[in-house]
Design brief:
Number of strands: 24
Distance between the termini: 61 Å
Number of helices: 46
Helix content: 40-55%
Strand content: 5-15%
Catalytic activity: RNA(n) + a ribonucleoside 5'-triphosphate = RNA(n+1) + diphosphate
GO biological process, one term: mitochondrial transcription
Structural class: mainly alpha
Keywords: DNA-directed RNA polymerase, Nucleotidyltransferase, Transcription, Transferase, Transit peptide
Enzyme class: transferase
Radius of gyration: 34 Å
Organism: Bombus bifarius
Length: 1248
């Protein structure tokens, strides 16, 4: 079988001079089809599959579409076409000459010169095109676009033209149309190729249509796409300069000057000039600096303080003479014209190494006693919800008493080394039953040394060829080789070996597509580049210096009284200000590399893996190998509607590595908790991990609007968001080793379905073989059984791997303190960055975590531990606090038995809804009771307070709906109201009526309408679950009921879904009206205005829904995608509620931090120590009342009018609604009820 798979390679000779294709393989290949395009022997292809081939004449770059899914489709007739060929003006002989194919862009040349012949077409070609486009820049890239015949993403393509040029193109198209049918024209010869007039007319329409389309692109070109283009150029120029290619960087800028002049509204363009100014200033080329400055003025660009900073840096090292003084005076006058002062240069610019000293020296030539005045730190909030919260540091450090400053600095060094290596290997808790041959590691080491030499030779050879080819390229954005020279060769070779290890130790049943592997490898190289840039610019050293001072404040804030009125963010800014006063700022980072560069780097390196990494016979002597064979090969896998090209290791390689790598797991540093306190968020670009770039917002990389929105938001508006993330990230954690030991034992023993510990795939029994004489119905059932088995196998393996990672990481951090950096999703909801070990995990994952710092239980702490355990069991959900406490005391024997004999006793804990957290709570109670004075017992156990259907709580508060508020415990009661039970009661009443009316499904459901059946649907209805999704939710619950008839599951789920939705709309009238208004507004915004729905939370966080229509082939040329109307409409209501519950959480966290209360959250579930539950509950209710005392819906309506009404006014379409109608819709806020929101303050069961 594998001999077939390795036949991807064609007949070639390896770099070592050895044929590596066995004879039997060659014989087999002769019977196959050799593809003339990719030189690959394909097997027989199903007629139902049509390969979508993209012709690429150059190999310098790769396009995203070259790895796009190969869609299935019906066989189509091949279109006939003719090619126009012209003899080139290169040297020719009587036997041989060179020809080239004329492209669509050459047609005007033939039209305007009807007497032209193919003999002189090549000579006049360049002149004609230059006349047409009047731009060498456009000429080069237009031909590049036509000749390569590939689709390019406009963000990464320099083929951007001005509106006037597009008008010229339209005129050209009209000339072609008018002259096309003239008999005396050269096109008479085209008719001889049997191309009909109608086809020519279609070609004309297509050309004209494309021109109109490009013109439309130019009209809709906005600053976001211009900015992306400028950032791509910045990335290339920055890498050129890092490689010492100053001349190429300068040429790149000169070529794009015309484009610059036509896009002056983009403020980012000046950065292209500034980066070159810095390079020339560093080399003390004063003439070039002044020449570039003149270009800035000639191109009508506005210089910035950074621009003048670099100019003064260059002049600062020059000898003082009369000319220099006159020049400085002239610059000073021009600065004043642009409203730039000398102080602005120091407070608003970024500099490296000794630049500021040179600038100061130059300024003091004019003003001898000049001292820069730096901007003071802003310590005030703008938002009135938090303006009463002083930016004061906590009275006590979150890590006080658990670590010394020396231990913290040792942890800093550990974290630094982890991030510098990018990846970390940790021991796996999986029991390795196989006997590992001790010689395997030696054999792999020899093999990798051989591969390293082969990869190095191939890398140097391929890079040399690539460099020679690209040196003639005029398109800056297609140059790749500098990105392969910007680091030492060892980095690229190590990256290749890293990929080899990952591929070899991968899964047998799953492999990633080649494109995703290219991206991952390219991003790995970029992260290495980022680290090297930080080292070279001195940023890394400054981070360590600032962080060391920050750690001293973090552990002992009381020892720094001059920082008393500061929090994590402002303290970091204070130390950064002191450290970077004369040096590189921390936010000086490398520009993100464009995605096409990332892909091309990955492709370049993977070509080496596929073509040059071989298995030689003399290395694997015991194997029956007579020839060198590839260690890796590619294959195509059917993914339903398309074929995916994937890479697999040779079985011999896979066997070697899997036996060795069973002992360890490899994780990127971003996937692990932090060994030291995270860097506080001080901007959207700086925060999280120490030196690894952490995303502030979790959003797709191709949705740049949200990032641009944040960049244009004033920093003061985001201060509360930064401080909330910093408060959550500053909490230290540790592992609950008692629970960890029990779970590891169960996992290593094979898992347990009863205890929710995933089992291995080996426990599954595959369906039996199909009988040859089986009927059609039996075959269908067998096919369904196989599909269900495969799905079950994938699900089981996924859960098993997740648990393996979780337990291995927890075991690695055993007896250690660690931290969890946090960031946001686009709705404002907060998440820990490490995905495996965190408190947003499953019941098992949460049971493994304890607070790093403990606090005494105090007078009520033990009672709260008991209540917490009973709440987790869900046995007394409808009972009062008093009843739950009594129940806990009655079951104290069961609690203590669970703690002392978790696996051998009564196992009362496993009956709980959250069994592992219940067991952890039982153990904490037992430990507390062992101490002489329970109140002095130091507890690290987190106690939870969960909102009662929090989404409906926000709806009821927004509409002041009295009935709805009472249903979700906003109103105080002696016992908690359970909205799920109330919905069940309404459904059951209706079911009984329907049963009496002989509705069959209502009769079947008798005794099965229970709380757990509809709980998930009720909970998620407020978050936008559709009826289709609700049917599946209910069907899943009915399926788990033993006695419910399986044949009626779907019909019963339909009935219950309709009943549930009807009951909720009946109970929550205000919520229904608000949802309807949200939907109507979103419909207007997305369908009529063609805009994304956006809003600003009460805390100041801007939010944009990122739902866009999927890219088609044409979208790779025109990236002007439109919003997905359906998703924008359906998602707005739930996303707005999510943003409100996040705001409530942040307000609670900020106020808890002010009162020295440990606080973390799982969205609407708040955690703290048992001794501070009462204080946190009070703050939680106060902040909910404060939030909903604001005119939230009214403010939203005002925002909609200001944001979208001007856009609507500019729309030019027939029969559009009157603007006042749109205004009324956007401001039609639903009327409110009579509920007094202050009742929440005394509601015990609001959060409980």
């Amino acid at each position: 079988m594998y001999k077939l798979l390795i036949t991807r390679v064609t007949e070639r000779i390896s770099p070592h001079g050895v044929f590596f294709i066995p004879k039997q393989v060659i014989t087999m290949q002769r019977s196959m089809r050799l593809c003339s395009f990719c030189n690959f022997y394909h097997g027989n292809i199903s007629k139902s599959i049509k390969y979508q081939q993209v012709r690429i004449y150059g190999t310098t770059t790769v396009d995203i579409l070259s790895h796009s899914p190969i869609k299935k489709g019906k066989k189509q007739r091949t279109k006939k076409y003719a090619e126009l060929l012209a003899v080139t003006n290169k040297t020719a002989s009587t036997k041989r000459t060179e020809i080239e194919k004329l492209t669509a862009s050459d047609l005007p040349m033939l039209v305007d010169n009807p007497d032209i012949t193919t003999d002189n077409s090549c000579e006049s070609k360049d002149v004609t095109l230059n006349q047409l486009f009047d731009s060498k820049y456009m000429n080069e890239n237009y031909h590049d676009f036509c000749d390569t015949e590939i689709y390019l993403n406009i963000e990464n393509n320099v083929d951007i033209v001005t509106e006037n040029e597009m008008k010229d193109n339209l005129n050209i198209g009209n000339e072609i149309k008018n002259n096309m049918l003239q008999k005396d024209s050269t096109f008479h010869s085209i008719k001889q190729t049997k191309l009909k007039d109608q086809k020519l007319e279609n070609v004309l329409k297509l050309s004209t249509g494309n021109a109109h389309k490009k013109m439309e692109i130019c009209k809709t070109e906005n600053k976001y796409r211009v900015k992306n283009y400028v950032e791509s150029l910045l990335a290339h120029i920055q890498v050129y300069l890092s490689c010492g290619l100053l001349n190429r960087a300068n040429k790149t800028l000169m070529k794009c000057r015309k484009y610059v002049k036509n896009n002056l509204e983009c403020n980012e363009i000046i950065k292209l000039y500034n980066i070159l100014l810095e390079a020339y200033a560093f080399r003390r080329q004063i003439g070039k600096v002044l020449e570039l400055y003149d270009m800035i003025k000639n191109d009508s660009l506005t210089p910035t303080s950074q621009t003048y900073g670099y100019i003064f840096d260059a002049l600062g090292n020059e000898t003082v003479d009369k000319k220099q003084i006159e020049l400085l005076k002239k610059l000073n006058v021009e600065m004043n014209n642009y409203n730039i002062s000398f102080d602005d240069i120091f407070s608003k610019s970024y500099f490296k190494i000794s630049q500021q000293k040179n600038i100061l020296k130059a300024i003091r030539i004019l003003i001898p006693d000049f001292e820069p005045a730096y901007a003071t730190l802003n310590r005030n909030y703008r938002c009135k919800l938090v303006e009463k919260i002083q930016m004061a540091s906590s009275c006590e450090s979150p890590a006080k008493g658990i670590l010394t400053i020396k231990q913290l600095k040792d942890l800093l060094e550990t974290q630094l080394q982890t991030e510098l290596k990018i990846e970390t290997q940790i021991p796996s808790i999986k029991v390795c039953k196989e006997n590992i041959n001790t010689n395997l590691e030696t054999k792999i080491m020899e093999l990798e040394n051989y591969w390293k030499d082969a990869a190095l030779a191939a890398f140097e050879r391929n890079l040399k060829c690539l460099k020679q080819k690209e040196c003639q390229s005029h398109n800056a954005l297609t140059i790749l080789y500098p990105f392969l020279e910007v680091l030492d060769k060892e980095y690229y070779i190590d990256a290749i070996l890293r990929e080899i290890r990952q591929l070899a130790a991968g899964s047998e049943t799953f492999s990633s597509s080649l494109k995703s592997l290219y991206v991952a490898l390219g991003k790995y190289i970029y992260r290495k580049y980022e680290i090297e840039i930080k080292k070279q610019t001195g940023v890394l050293d400054k981070i360590i210096n600032i962080y060391s001072k920050y750690l001293e404040w973090y552990l002992h804030p009381e020892k720094m009284p001059h920082l008393n009125n500061m929090n994590n963010r402002t303290v970091w800014e204070y130390f950064e200000y002191k450290e970077t006063k004369y040096g590189t700022p921390l936010n000086f980072t490398s520009v993100n590399w464009p995605m096409n560069v990332i892909i091309n780097i990955g492709k370049f390196l993977y070509h080496i893996i596929l073509n040059d990494i071989m298995l030689k016979p003399d290395i694997l002597k015991e194997q029956d190998l007579k020839y060198s064979i590839p260690a890796f090969y590619t294959l195509f896998r059917n993914k339903g509607s398309y074929l995916s090209e994937q890479i697999k290791p040779h079985p011999l390689v896979s066997k070697l590595y899997r036996n060795v790598h069973l002992k360890t797991l490899t994780f990127e540093s971003l996937l692990l908790p932090s060994y030291s306190p995270p860097s506080p968020w001080v901007s959207i670009h700086l925060g999280g991990y120490l030196i690894t770039k952490t995303d502030f917002i979790r959003t797709s990389s191709d949705f740049g609007c949200l990032w641009h929105k944040f960049e244009n938001t004033e920093p003061e508006q985001l201060f509360p968001i930064f401080d909330s993330l910093n408060q959550l990230s500053s909490i230290p954690w540790k592992i609950n080793t008692a629970i960890l030991d029990i779970v590891i034992k169960i996992f290593q023993d094979g898992g347990s379905v009863e205890l929710n510990v995933p089992q291995s795939v080996s426990v599954l029994t595959p369906p039996g073989p199909i009988n040859k004489n089986a009927t059609v119905e039996e075959k269908q059932k067998a096919a369904i059984a196989i599909a269900q088995y495969n799905q079950k196998k994938y699900d089981t393996y996924s859960l098993w791997c997740d648990t393996l990672y979780k337990l291995s990481i927890a075991n690695h951090f055993r007896n250690k303190i660690f931290w969890l950096p946090h960031n946001l999703d686009f709705r404002g909801r907060v998440y820990p960055v490490p995905p495996y070990l965190n408190h947003l995990s499953s019941d098992l994952g949460r049971s493994l975590l304890l607070f790093g710092k403990g606090k005494p239980l105090g007078p009520n702490g033990l009672d709260w531990l008991k209540l917490h355990v009973i709440n987790l069991t869900n046995f007394k959900k409808a009972g009062s606090v008093k009843e739950r406490l009594e129940y806990a005391n009655q079951n104290m024997d069961n609690i203590l038995d669970s703690a002392t004999k978790p696996l051998t006793g009564k196992m009362w804990w496993k009956q709980s809804e959250e069994p592992w957290q219940t067991l952890a709570g039982c153990m904490e109670i037992a430990n507390a009771l062992k101490t002489p004075n329970v109140e002095e017992y130091v507890s690290t156990f987190p106690v939870h307070q969960d909102g009662s259907c929090n989404g409906l709580q926000h709806y009821a508060a927004l509409g002041k709906d009295k009935i709805g508020a009472e249903s979700v415990n906003l109103h105080p009661f002696d016992t908690p109201k359970d909205v799920y039970s109330e919905v069940v009661s309404i459904i059951e009443t209706q079911r009984q009526i329907d049963a009496k009316n002989n509705v069959k499904i209502a009769q079947i459901l008798e005794g099965y309408v229970k709380r757990k059946v509809i709980k998930q649907t009720v909970m998620t209805t407020v978050y936008g679950v559709t009826k289709y999704g609700a049917k599946h939710q209910i069907a899943k619950q009915l399926k788990d009921m033993e006695n419910f008839p399986k044949e009626h599951i779907w019909s019963a789920s339909i009935y219950l879904t309709e009943s549930t939705f009807h009951s909720l709309r009946k109970m929550f009238k205000s919520a229904r009206e608000i949802q309807d208004w949200f939907t109507e507004c979103a419909q207007i915004i997305s369908s009529i205005c063609c805009e994304n729905v956006e809003w600003v939370t009460p805390l100041g966080l801007p939010i944009i829904q990122p739902y866009m229509k999927q890219k088609s082939l044409n979208n790779y040329i025109n990236d002007n995608r439109k919003p997905d109307k359906i998703k924008q409409r359906n998602a707005f209501a739930p996303n707005f509620i999510h943003s409100l519950d996040s705001t409530h959480m942040m307000l609670t966290g900020l106020n808890c931090n002010k009162n020295n209360i440990t606080f973390v959250s799982v969205h609407d579930c708040f955690w703290t120590h048992s001794c501070t539950i009462d204080a946190m509950n009070k703050i939680c209710r106060e902040q909910f009342v404060a939030l909903h005392s604001e005119p939230i819906l009214e403010d939203l309506a005002i925002f909609f009018v200001k944001r979208y009404l001007p856009i609507y006014k500019q729309l030019k379409c027939k029969d559009k609604p009157d603007i006042e109608t749109i205004r009324r819709c956007l401001t039609n806020v639903p009327s409110k009820g009579t509920f007094d929101i202050n009742n929440v303050l005394s509601s015990v069961y609001f959060f409980n």
